[in-house]
Amino acid sequence: MVGGGEGGGRVGLLENANPLIYERSGERPVTAGEEDEQVPDSIDAREIFDIHHCWELADEELNVVEQVRIQVSDPESTVAVAFTPTIPHCSMATLIGLSIKVKLLRSLPQRFKMDVHITPGTHASEHAVNKQLADKERVAAALENTHLLEVVNQCLSARS
Amino acid sequence: MRSREEELKGLGADFTFGFIQVMDGEKDPRNLLVAFRIVHDLISKDYSLGPFVEELFEVTSCYFPIDFTPPPNDPYGIQRDDLILSLRAVLASTPRFAEFLLPLLIEKVDSEILSAKLDSLQTLNACCSVYGQKELKDFLPSLWASIRREVFQTASERVEAEGLAALHSLTACLSCSVLRADAEDLLDSFLSNILQDCRHHLCEPDMKLVWPSAKLLQAAAGASARACEHITSTVLPLLLEQFHKHSQSNQRRTILEMILGFLKLQQKWSYEDKDERPLTRFKDQLCSLVFMALTDPSTQLQLVGIRTLTVLGSQPDLLSSGDLELAVGHLYRLSFLEEDSESCRVAALEASGTLTTLYPGAFSSHLLPKLAKELHKGKSDVAREDGLMKCSRHFCCLQALSAISTHPSIVRETLPLLLQRLCQANKGNVVTESSEVIAICQSLQQVAEKCQQDPESYWYFHETAIPCLFGLAVQASMPEKESSVLRKVLLEDEVLAALASVIGTATTHLSPELAAQSVTCIVPLFLDGNTSFLPENSFPSRFQPFQDGSSAQRRLVALLTAFVCSLPRNVEIPQLNQLMRELLEQSCCHSCPFASTAAAKCFAGLLNKQPPGQQLDEFLQLAVDTVETGLASGSSRNQAFVLLLWVTKALVLRYHPLSACLTTRLMGLLSDPELGPAAADGFSLLMSDCTDVLTRAGHADVRIMFRQRFFTDNVPALVQGFHAAPQDVKPNYLKGLSHVLNRLPKPVLLPELPTLLSLLLEALSCHDSVVQLSTLSCLQPLLLESPQIMSLHIDTLVTKFLTLSSSHSMAVRIAALQCMHALTRLPAPVLLPYKSQVIRALAKPLDDKKRLVRKEAVSARGEWFLLGSPGS
Questions:
Q1: What ipTM is given for this predicted complex?
Q2: Where is the protein found, in the record's own terms (chain B) (predicted)?
Q3: DSSP characters over B362-391
């Protein structure tokens, strides 16, 4: 199913023209407990998932980020997100990973330790990408890069 | 052209040619609008175009697609859309342009510019109403290719929608064209093309193109009966086969949803002859497939199954009685689903309601007996089943009974069942919770609502239920030695409110004649204790709710209120004068707040409907006297205040002149040490819509602009009162004001807010969370709508919002964070100095204990990060 390229102006989008799609889970229903002032709600996988849901809808339909691949522990302040590029040699993998990481940095309390990596076995250069994403200095340097920051911010701006 | 049409036409094609030369190269949008108008007239009024058709097309089509942005401060007010629409009217005005226009449209659909795509598809759509097969013939393959590509690949929902609309019109056009005897019908070959390109995608329910393909086919099939038949006869067997080939629930769901889409299209066409209907052939297969879906463990698949069943049932004469019996059986089972498949249960109830209107017989013979049995089971099985389980089955059963009460013949079976259940509970041999009585009342109310369309059922409901309910209540209010549990239950506030709401719903839609008949029974019951119309009327003592009756009897005034306040305005109420005096007296009685409030509401409800005149003035005078006496006395000040509030509301709603005076009295109470806070909350009551009395549905005199009027008349005084008031009662004024502002429609409020801005900013420091919340909700739209004005106060706003984002009230925290988000709409140079401070401060609510607060914090902080960043 790769490379169906009629009128291929939008490169990133059309690398895969008829991808598998997944059901979109609806808006998270608000429970009685969540409306109760007293009850604390701990941060869970769905919440992390929704953080991403709001910036790149397509990511969910394409299952780049899936709720089952998010591990989070509120008491231990750790979160691990595994993302799945749509095709094994997706050229955007690093950028997607970086965007996810930045979104987490901006959205979670500072106490959290974050780990963003590619779902094992789903990308040709999985190891290299993971290494870059885990490297704090590299991530920081990437965000100093105006051009890169611009692309990341574009990803993170709410889709109109 | 308007006055000299004959002469101009006499010039022949020369006039057209001359005009083309004049128009050529025109750039001014004002002239273009006129020019387009003239070209349209040339064509529609049949001027001679001679050999200049192509020239005329060229001179207009060179503007297509319109690319025009009105300059800022444009004095002429010409919008892009004006030009687009007038050019489109020209281009789509004649089939003679077709050979030139269609290639242009195809070229523009294929372009990369979104607006050009949209405009071209819409223009194509417009053309289809004048074109015929002859014009389209040569371009069909290219048009289809372009539309298909747009629908398959677009990222824009609008392009997709326009593409589908264009395909729909094309197909409709081909279906309707009158053919010459020797011409070949292009519809079939066009549809075959579509089918060929789409059908294989339908077999891959996991892939992205499945839905675009289904939508394309449905758009074409929706265009005409012939197209529908052609497409369904190919697609339905294919989808039926695919359903069985795929075994996963989510795949099946996609397939069934597509089937549902095609079935729905059938409803657009009526077939005279039963055998002609394309669905008849597939009926058995469709039914078995739907029943499979209904028994699938996946809720999503069940839901689609229920919807498909409803659509199948709506096809006339499709389902056999055997199918119906099976269907009813499934619906019965689904009506009792556990809590976690609530959505399915609700859908099943809705489907039952719809299908009952079509097949009352099937539901009456296959469903009602089961429900009746289930309803009675509650009695004997109390001990055996555990409480919760029985309870929820019981509620489900009540809901199912009301859901199917959509047909008159069914109402005649369900209503007696429900009333009987209520009476049985009254016999005292069943332990009855108030929640159960309330549930029965809710069911009764839903039945009453469903009867509203049919006057005969409605009167049946009224005539049967009203005496029964009053009878039960009167009996419960009688002093008795061994008082059954239910007796007390029936008199609880919530139960009485539920009963009252049944009575109200069963009264509002009565015709004046029938209402007059009913009112002559109910009013004497309360004033004279005349119980003769009640089903059981031998009571141990008299019913005298007004003359020093027991407090149990007084409480029943709430039921009287529900009845008389729901009557049509022109129904005469017997003994009105006496009734009003009794109500006033009772409204000040301080032994039972429930009864006195009910009396005050009843008085207000009747006052609102009373036509102007001497009697109204007398009632008002009496009311004012009662209020003043009450406020002056020590013991019944609260009751007098409640009466004042309701009377004021009744008058404010109908713009009565005395309302100003009463509102001033109410405002005066804001600085009353005892009643001040209650008076502040009273403003909320004045501005909100009641559900029980003084409603439009209950025929009250409610002017549509009463809120705006109240705002204009009273806000200046409130603001003044606030500034003059001593520090300790200032919050009361702010709160009163908050309620008024909160209830006002936002578009009305926005232009007024800037004048109130200083007060609002002050209100942010108020410690009352109601005031804080209301102020924030006023400021939030203001930030979005008038960023310029708000920019002046940026410092205060940032500080206050950040402070409130750690309020103890979760609603305030959420609202404060939403305001922080809205702040990002202000001009960036104003915000940037605060960026790092805000981002640091917003880190804290990211760790709020409430998820709903964190969600707002995440989105607000995200936006602040993007401020002034590249790429945002």
A1: 0.84
A2: Cytoplasm, Cytoskeleton, Spindle; Nucleus
A3: HHHHHTHHHHHHHHHHHHHTTTTS-HHHHH
Geometric angle at alpha carbon B545, from B542 and B547, rounded to 5°:
85
Q: Residues of B688-711 as b/e, b for ≥16 C-beta within 10 angstroms?
A: eebebbbbeebbbbbeeebbeebb
Q: Are B419 and B401 a contacting pair, CB within 8 Å?
A: no
Q: How far is A159 from chain B (nearest CA, A)?
A: 11
- B868, B828 contact by CB (below 8 A): yes
Please give the pLDDT value at position A5. 31
Return phi, psi of residue B180, to 5°.
Answer: -75, 155
Q: What span, in angstroms and rounded, lies between the C-alpha atoms of B157 and B172?
A: 22
Of A9, A41, A150, the CB nearest to B870: A150
Token pair in block for residue A80:
């691990």
Q: Where are the beta strands (DSSP E) in B89-246?
A: none
CATH of A45-156, one of 2.60.40.10, 2.60.120.560, 1.10.3430.10, 3.30.300.130: 3.30.300.130
Q: How close is the nearest chain A Cα to the Cα of B500, in Å?
A: 28
The 10 Å Cβ neighbour count of residue A142 is: 19
Q: Which residues contact B69 (CB under 8 A, 6 or more apart)?
A: B80
- Please state the pTM of the whole predicted model: 0.75
pLDDT value at B175 more than 80: yes
Amino acid identity, position B28:
D
Crossing angle, helix B186-202 and helix B140-153, to 10 degrees? 30
Rounded CA-CA distance A151/B783 in Å is 29
Average pLDDT of chain B is 86
- On the question of pLDDT at B579 being above 80, the answer is yes
Contact B40, B86 (CB under 8 A): yes
Cα atoms in the Cβ-side hemisphere of radius 13 Å centred on B200: 4
Q: Which of B731, B743, B732, B737 is nearest to B715 (CA)?
A: B737
- Phi first, then psi: give them for residue B206, nearest 5 degrees: -90, -15
Q: Tell me, what's the pLDDT at A55?
A: 52
> Is B250 touching A (CB cutoff 8 A)?
yes
∠ CA(B802), CA(B723), CA(B661), 5° rounding?
A: 120
CA separation for the pair B328, B350 (Å, rounded): 13
Which residue from B149, B206, B872 is facing A157, i.e. has the nearest CB? B872
CB count in 10 Å sphere of residue A5: 11
* Residue of chain B nearest A49, judged by CA positions: B855
Q: What is the DSSP string of B318-339?
A: -S-HHHHHHHHHHHHHHTT--G
Query: Other C-beta atoms within 10 Å of B70: how many?
Result: 14
- CB B298, CB B343: distance < 8 Å: no
The angle that helices B706-724 and B658-668 make with each other, rounded to 10 degrees, is 40
3-class SS of residue B546: coil
Beta carbons of B669 and B705 less than 8 angstroms apart: no
> Pick from A34, A41, A153: which is nearest to B866 by CB?
A153
DSSP helix, strand, coil percent of chain B (3-state; round to 5): 75, 0, 25
Q: Which residue's structure tokens are 């930030």?
A: B783
In angstroms, the CA B468 to CA B536 distance is 9
Q: Convert the pLDDT of each residue in B9-58 to its tens digit.
A: 888 888 888 888 888 888 888 888 899 999 998 888 888 888 888 889 99
- Interchain proximity B871–A18, CB inside 8 Å: no
CB contact under 8 A, A106 and B861: yes
DSSP classification of residue A20: B
| pLDDT above 90: residue A125 | no
- What are φ and ψ of residue A114, in 5° steps? -110, 140
Instruction: Round to whole Å and give the CA distance between B681 and B768.
Output: 12
Q: Min CA distance, A103 vs chain B (Å)?
A: 8
Nearest to B759 by CA among B728, B787, B731: B731
